[in-house]
UniProtKB/TrEMBL annotation:
Protein name per UniProt: ACS family hexuronate transporter-like MFS transporter
PROSITE patterns cross-referenced by the UniProt entry: MFS
A single cellular component GO annotation: membrane
Keywords for this protein: Membrane, Transmembrane, Transmembrane helix
Keyword Transmembrane helix: yes
Species of provenance: Hephaestia caeni
Subcellular location: Membrane
Boundaries of every Major facilitator superfamily (MFS) profile domain copy: 23-423
Amino acid sequence: MSDATERHVAAAAERVGCYRWLICGLLFAATAINYVDRQMIGILKPTLQADLGWSETDYANIVLWFQAAYAIGYLGFGRLVDRIGARMGYAVAFTLWTVAHILHGAVRTTFGFGAVRFMLGIGESGSFPAGLKAVATWFPARERALAIGIFNAGANVGAIVTPIIVPIITVAYGWRAAFVITGVLSFVWLFAWLAFYRTPRETKRLGAAELALIESDAPDAPGKVAWLRLLRYRETWAFALGKFITDPIWWMFLFWLPDFLAKRYDLDLMSFGPPLIAIYLLSDVGSVAGGWASSRLIARGHSVNRARKATMLVCALAVTPIFFAQWVSHLWIAVLIIGLAAAAHQAWSANLFTLVSDMFPRKAVGSVIGIGGTAGALGGMLMAKFAGYVLETVGTYRLIFFVAGSVYLIALAVIHLLSPRLARASVEIVEA
């Protein structure tokens, strides 16, 4: 066989379908919608405080109720998704959180906001367990970090879109209409998800070559994983504590960054959009780059352990300049510093999520993600109370940013101590 023929055969062998990337695109879109719904309260914080008379503590408590529900719901949805699958699990979660989002437009009291935020938190807690279950189902191990990085970038797109569309709707029709309009329009995604998502073997549009690629990893052992037994594994705690320590920083960005920009640089509802967009554009790049970087290192022959942790170390170091953001007098220099930290968090997050599929069989992924998500939400609750107290008593973000710049290095040390080699957990499989 000639060299040209061999190259043609090799190229043909590499040409597989791209249906799995359509699934990734749907996950990207759902994550964007999730973050529009989640972030709107942060964008509207000054407006809502003026209209409803909230104190800093009131606002912190409303955020806390969302995160309490997120913590509770993450555990339940992680298990539910492992039982009923990503397709119906995501549909249930999406419907619940979208209805809750629309109901924001009807409430008039602080208690009412706390109640609908609680309902929103329950629904939104299903997003990542279902999304990561779908990635574990549709992608081989060597592509998962990139796929997770791409769909996780939807969070940043949602965070970019929110300060563009929400102020426009709010100025034209009021903040109540902003919740109703964005919620009703997002139901389009649900119809697309139910139309296109099946497991690979149930998908008629999937070619044989792509199915072979998806199933190229060794199959899981038959049976099921007992949820409570997952708490016995150091690998579970490596992921959960990593989430507990670092997730609160992203929550702080979402719920308090518009407030920081408004207070520090005298911006308002119509003017803090461009800085927020710039920050979340940078974080979007970080999300994809983080997944790409560790996948690239693995492709070049590095171990999974070395590739993931080296990438996460770079991310942890890139957050540290946020120490100085409070002292920066120039808006766009502060935007660059905060944007770098946000990008580093998203790159970190893409790799942290991927650790679960590195260390656990597919049938345990949703449950472990649920445990970790609960831990992250509990950390977010502590951050909400901490931020509310600091802003109520001290009035500046200096201490908050000091904590933000420190915790990633601590989290990486904890992960390394609990799982020094990222070895596959010896999960006990029980009969179905």
